[in-house]
Amino acid sequence: xxxxxxxxxxxxxxxxxxxxxxxxxxxxxxxxxxxxxxxxxxxxxxxxxxxxxxxxxxxxxxxxxxxxxxxxxxxxxxxxxxxxxxxxxxxxxxxxxxxxxxxxxxxxxxxxxxxxxxxxxxxxxxxxxxxxxxxxxxxxxxxxxxxxxxxxxxxxxxxxxxxxxxxxxxxxxxxxxxxxxxxxxxxxxxxxxxxxxxxxxxxxxxxxxxxxxxxxxxxxxxxxxxxxxxxxxxxxxxxxxxxxxxxxxxxxxxxxxxxxxxxxxxxxxxxxxxxxxxxxxxxxxxxxxxxxxxxxxxxxxxxxxxxxxxxxxxxxxxxxxxxxxxxxxxxxxxxxxxxxxxxxxxxxxxxxxxxxxxxxxxxxxxxxxxxxxxxxxxxxxxxxxxxxxxxxxxxxxxxxxxxxxxxxxxxxxxxxxxxxxxxxxxxxxxx
Length: 431
What we know:
This protein is an alpha/beta fold. About 40% of the residues lie in helices and about 15% in strands. It contains 16 helices and 16 strands. The strands form 4 sheets. Strands 1, 2, 3, 4, 5, 6, 13, 14, 15 and 16 form a 10-stranded mixed sheet that branches. β13 and β14 form a beta hairpin.
């Protein structure tokens, strides 16, 4: 009897270990059936004709544990970064990059190629296969290019969710970007209207003897070479150094953002209210995905790494030509809090029920133009050694593809551990 109980416990323990470790074998994936029509309907009609499987079911089929999933309804979900840690000892899958030779305003079909390829590998050849793509901006979605869900019978679904708000990542970037923009102008306003000690009292509030520096303020003190931790011990010159950033308005490179094509906001004048009299400044809006915060999201490797990257963002120079960062402004922690959910990729599916990881959306002509390092890492672990991760390198091969290799080399992976393939195509419109 004792031996039987020990054997039973051993089997239970082995099953638990196998589940926690991701198994290592083929997924038990149930594809969705397609019913092609002739003539081929519109992309929207095709997308709406398919009923997606419950995203929790798909997550279970590909080895994501229930506590690693945060549902946004039953068709999309955030995936925990804990997957990377849990499957750390598991070998990565094969990495396939889809790129286009030359970009054109209407797009070249890279997303369609990605979706078609993963549907063929996953639904028909029964290979563990993940697509990793960027979240589209609402600018191009409502412009001439349209959405980025793919086309025909090779799409991400639900199409409307994918092309619009999804799980709110771009809104989080918009909020974080504009918080930093507001902090820049507010800091310049207060520095110009207050004496050193009054400004210091607002930055480090409280009664003498009870005041404390925050960690971000201690970081600034160290940067200035002031080795003190008690706010009441700073001399007048140190108070001035600490309190004043002395930003030169002519050098500010940080703009406000909005995820809409609104050309009349490209250049605006702010500070025209009577309460800000004398503090007018010409600035403007850019599209949200052009924010440096979007690039940071795509490059980050964990929450702490994102916090450090956000803090290093340069917003302009002071009058001595020294760079001023988000950390100097004391706002990098707040930016990280706003981005704490956006750091997690979103799980969706293709028309045939194969998994898709959607994350980040930087433009390739101004940033890295790829999905995130985190989405790729999670997918490479989940597919296993014999599986495939198909990712899209945005824009043209001279930007998106080269950036993809740059990211692999310098930010994330060892080339010797990843089997790579490239699919590069040229459409007639770009010739």
